[in-house]
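User: Second chain of the day. Same drill as before.
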Amino acid sequence: MTRDKLNYKLLLFLKVFFIYFLVSIKSYSDDSAIKNNLIVLGNDDAPVKIKIFSSLTCPHCANFHMEVIPEIEKNYVKFGKVQLIFLDFPLDLASLNASKLLHCLDKKKQIKFLGTIYENQAKWTSGSDLSEINNNLKEMVKDLGISPTEFEKCLNNETVENNILNIRIEGQRKYSINSTPTIIINEKKFEGSTDFKNMKKKIDKLI
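Assistant: Same format as last time:
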C-alpha cells in the first residue's frame, strides 16, 4: 500500500471518528437524513430486502455490482421479489468523494452513476494522488450533468459528507462491518461467497 493510500485511509478514519463522537454526544443520528439518501431498486413491499454496503474504490464491490446485481435485478427485482438498497461504506477519501458526487446527483441518475463508477474504477482511481483522482472524477461526471463548479461545491458539501459518514457509522455499529461488500439480507449478514449462485440459494429460501 502506498503512502498516499495510507494517508487517505487515515484522514477518513479521523473524519469518521469525529462524526461518531458527535453522534455519541447527541445519542442519536439523523435517521431521516439517512433514509432520504438511500438508493433503492425494487418495490418497498418485496419479501426480500438486500442491503449492500460498499466502497466505490473496492474492486470486489465493482465485481459484485457488475456481475451479481444484474442477475438479481433480472431474476428477482423485476418480479417484485427483491428490493436492493445501496449503502455507502467508504474505505478511503477517494471513495468518500465519489460517494459525495453520487448523492449530489438527481435520484434518476444515481444508478447510472454507480454503473459508470464501477465500470471505470481502474481508470479513475489510477491517479498518483487525491488531486489527480478528483480530476479523473471531474471529467467522468460531466456527462452526468455535474459541471466543474458543481463538482467543487459537491465535494465541499458538509451535509452530504456527514450523511454518508453517518450511514457508515450506523452500518458498522449495527452489523459489525469490517470489509466490503457486506451484504445484509432481511437484516442478517450474508456469510460466504457473494457470487450469484450462493445469493440465489439464500433468496430462494426466503420467497
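The first helix runs from residue 3 to 26.

User: Great, on to the next one.
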